[in-house]
């Protein structure tokens, strides 16, 4: 395990690099013919980067002319590691993507070899999560014949050589390299369009192709050696960031592979292996992380190798982002830039890990810490939102991992300045709904009209609301005026919420009204279809789910309401309960209560009567008091007269709507589809649904307190 921070080693102090180079030597392998063939000739080198996986250059197992080297049955080749020659097989060739991938597919000179025995334990090198630009202290490693006999001897010789040369001045040239040196010092290095160019004081011997280029100041593998010039000591390496181009199109025919997103799977295995190496009680001696810690401790960084190690392990447990642009946008937000991260080419950000690496901008330690904390907070929330409301154990596990990352972020954010904590805190989640709420003030104007205040909130589920617009005054306004004020900006508000929610169905419109306004035909409200000042208004109901909520249900969830909700969400099918029963003469409040109490879990109260007054209003009130969370009725229901043929058609339509399997969660979309059909030119038999009202009151997502002393629950 790593020791506490001490004095920072000076740049170029090779004694501090000895442990790192020892680890690098042990993870460098020699590639050769398959075990048992009797051929011991070295093809080239490779480096172990994840359990069972070797990264090398593609031309090592398959030369540029496309010829396969002498492999055993089924393409088996040899991987010399730990004093043994293990069986391996080429799985991914990034230089030769499948033809159907087209000219845009990545073609770096990289390949991945799988060890065929998954039980083999071996060390893994640390692969950088950021691009390398300039190299000041670096080494290239080479597998060779001595690895086939005694890799420990070669590694120990390399360690002794570093310690001998640590006594020289930093500017002195290293002594001549022998043919069996495990590594060669890089005198300089820089990136250009071809890759990482480097120079050394000695000629790089054959067999180095595919070996790692290790940058010692950060303690990372930054490149894979590709080749050298014959006449000088210049060489070329493929940046490890080119591995980001790995995709299913690079899978070799007949290989097993890593699934639909091999790059994410590979680097997740890499990061989780390194974190597991720090477990308490784990044997095996110092780790690669311990070597990094020895090099970088004491540099005054607030986000050090320990924080990075744990953060990348947490990120590795999350699903891959749906789109690389999401990663770029998160990086841009964390760096306080307008727009997304402007990376390009081989540095394009594919995974959350890549985004973490893009945050190292050479800034001061505090700015670096703030950017990383902000970025991780965004990732945690994006991941939680993606798995929100998704059933099943897999989604539940994702939510749990997102919560672990959130907890880690909160622990690291305590050292930030208060203004930075506030800035990072309200990272916006994807809204699932827009709520319009009308709050009665319980007094009236001179014309006898009841007065209201109103608000608009964005909903994020589980009672989390963010109020975005409020009309609050002591006097209030009549309901019709409040509605018109809301509608002036509602179209733009819904479009903005759709944009924040991302791809998929539009967000739901929820309208909370008090008793006496249950007949509000919100599905027929006309809202602007675009943000143009002269945009035409269209009915909202056919375009998005619209539901009504009871404004008096808030804060405290009673047991009957919760029980009814649990029952109707679990019900395999729904059926309508006509209220009041026909004929309604004997429908006393007591009789309605008995009828509702005896209803089963899949019951949905349904009314053709007016719900603004009379027996219809009383029936809805009793249903709500009995805990019913959902119901259907006509906004323009009839009064106290007897039901007629139109009522029969209405109830037949409701029964047809509820046919089929599924619980109440499907209702908002079913009603939207029905409204769209009723609004169309061929609305035969569905005209009755034009003013259909759906009550949908989820007790697990209670309404916010509109005007009160306690703060609202934000989505952060």
Overview of the structural elements:
The protein folds into four domains: 13-97 and 106-147 and 181-250, Thrombin, subunit H, CATH 2.40.10.120; 300-424, no CATH class; 444-549, no CATH class; 558-696, no CATH class. It is 30% helix and 21% strand. Strand 15 and strand 16 form a beta hairpin. With 716 residues, the chain is of the alpha+beta class. Residues 1-12, 147-154, 161-180, 338-347 and 707-716 have low confidence and may be disordered. The longest helix is centred in the middle third of the chain and has 23 residues, at 365-387. The strands form five sheets. It has a six-stranded antiparallel β-barrel with strand order 1-2-3-6-5-4. Helix 14 packs across helix 15 (614-625).
The number of domains: 4
What is the number of strand segments? 25
Largest sheet: 6 strands, antiparallel, barrel
Rg, rounded, reads 34 Å
Tell me the span between the first and last alpha carbons. Answer: 36 Å
CATH class of the largest domain: Mainly Beta
Helix fraction? 25-40%
What structural class should be given to the helix and strand makeup?
alpha+beta
CATH architecture of the largest domain: Beta Barrel
Assembly status: single chain
Strand content: 15-25%
The number of helical elements comes to 17
What name is given to the CATH topology of the largest domain?
Thrombin, subunit H
Mean model confidence by pLDDT: 83
Strand order of the largest sheet: 1-2-3-6-5-4
Coarse shape: elongated
Unreliable residue stretches: 1-12, 147-154, 161-180, 338-347, 707-716
Protein name: vWA-MoxR associated protein C-terminal domain-containing protein
Domain vWA-MoxR associated protein C-terminal: 451-699
């Amino acid at each position: 395990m790593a020791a506490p921070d001490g004095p920072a080693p000076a740049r170029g102090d090779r004694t501090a690099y000895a442990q790192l180079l020892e680890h690098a030597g042990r993870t460098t392998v020699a590639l050769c013919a398959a075990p048992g063939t009797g051929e011991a000739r070295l093809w080239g080198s490779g480096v172990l980067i994840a359990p069972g996986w070797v990264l090398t250059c593609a031309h090592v197992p398959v030369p540029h002319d496309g010829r396969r080297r002498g492999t055993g049955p089924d393409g088996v080749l040899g991987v010399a590691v730990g004093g043994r020659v293990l069986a391996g097989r080429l799985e991914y060739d990034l230089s030769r993507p499948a033809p159907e991938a087209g000219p845009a597919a990545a073609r770096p000179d990289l390949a991945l070899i799988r060890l065929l025995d998954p039980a083999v334990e071996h060390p893994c090198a640390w692969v950088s999560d950021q691009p390398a630009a300039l190299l000041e202290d670096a080494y290239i490693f080479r597998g060779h014949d001595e690895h086939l006999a005694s890799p420990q001897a070669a590694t120990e010789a390399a360690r002794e050589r570093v310690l001998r040369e640590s006594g020289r001045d930093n500017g002195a040239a290293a002594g001549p390299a022998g043919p069996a040196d495990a590594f060669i010092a890089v005198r300089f290095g820089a990136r250009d369009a071809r890759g990482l160019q480097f120079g050394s004081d000695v000629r790089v011997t054959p067999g180095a192709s595919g070996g790692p280029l290790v940058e010692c100041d950060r303690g990372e593998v930054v490149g894979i050696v590709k080749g050298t010039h014959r006449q000088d000591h210049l060489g070329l390496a493929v940046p490890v960031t080119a591995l980001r181009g790995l995709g299913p199109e690079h899978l070799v025919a007949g290989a097993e592979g890593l699934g639909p997103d091999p790059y994410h799977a590979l680097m997740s295995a890499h990061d989780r292996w390194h974190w597991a190496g720090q477990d308490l009680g784990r044997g095996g001696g110092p780790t690669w992380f311990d070597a990094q810690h020895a090099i970088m401790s004491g540099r005054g960084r607030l986000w050090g190798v320990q924080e990075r190690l744990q953060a990348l392990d947490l990120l590795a447990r999350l699903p891959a982002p749906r789109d690389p642009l999401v990663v770029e946008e998160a990086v841009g937000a964390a760096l306080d830039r307008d727009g997304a991260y402007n990376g390009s080419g081989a540095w394009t950000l594919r995974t959350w890990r890549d985004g973490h690496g893009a945050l190292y901008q050479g800034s001061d330690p505090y700015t670096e810490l703030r950017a990383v904390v902000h970025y991780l907070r965004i990732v945690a929330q994006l991941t939680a939102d993606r798995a929100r409301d998704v059933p099943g154990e897999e989604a539940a596990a994702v939510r749990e991992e997102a919560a672990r990352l959130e907890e880690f972020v909160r622990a690291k954010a305590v050292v930030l300045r208060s203004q930075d904590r506030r800035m990072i805190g309200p990272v916006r989640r994807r809204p699932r709904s827009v709520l319009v709420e009308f709050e009665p003030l319980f007094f009236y104007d001179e014309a006898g009209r009841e007065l209201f205040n109103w608000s608009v909130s964005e909903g994020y589920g589980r009672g989390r609301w963010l109020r975005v617009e409020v009309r609050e005054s002591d006097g209030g306004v009549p309901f019709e005026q409040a509605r018109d004020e809301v509608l002036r900006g509602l179209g733009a508000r819904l479009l903005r919420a759709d944009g924040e929610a991302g791809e998929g169905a539009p967000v739901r419109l929820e309208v909370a009204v008090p008793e006496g306004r249950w007949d509000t035909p919100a599905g027929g409200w006309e809202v602007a279809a675009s943000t143009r000042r002269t945009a035409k208004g269209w009915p909202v109901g056919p375009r998005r789910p619209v539901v009504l909520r009871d404004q008096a249900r808030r804060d405290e969830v009673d047991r009957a309401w919760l029980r009814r909700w649990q029952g109707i969400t679990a019900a395999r099918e729904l059926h309508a309960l006509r209220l009041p029963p026909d004929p309604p003469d004997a429908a006393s409040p007591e009789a309605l209560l008995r009828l509702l109490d005896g209803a089963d879990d899949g019951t949905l109260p349904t009314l053709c009567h007016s719900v603004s007054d009379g027996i219809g209003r009383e029936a809805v009130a009793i249903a709500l008091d009995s805990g019913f969370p959902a119901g259907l009725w006509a906004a323009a229901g009839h009064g106290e007269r007897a039901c007629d043929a139109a009522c029969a058609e209405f109830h037949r339509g409701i029964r047809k709507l509820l046919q089929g399997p599924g619980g109440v969660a499907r209702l908002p979309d079913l009603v939207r589809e029905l409204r769209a059909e009723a609004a169309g030119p061929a609305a035969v038999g569905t005209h009755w649904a034009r003013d259909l009202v759906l009550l949908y009151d989820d007790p697990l997502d209670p309404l916010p307190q509109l005007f009160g002393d306690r703060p609202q629950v934000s989505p952060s």
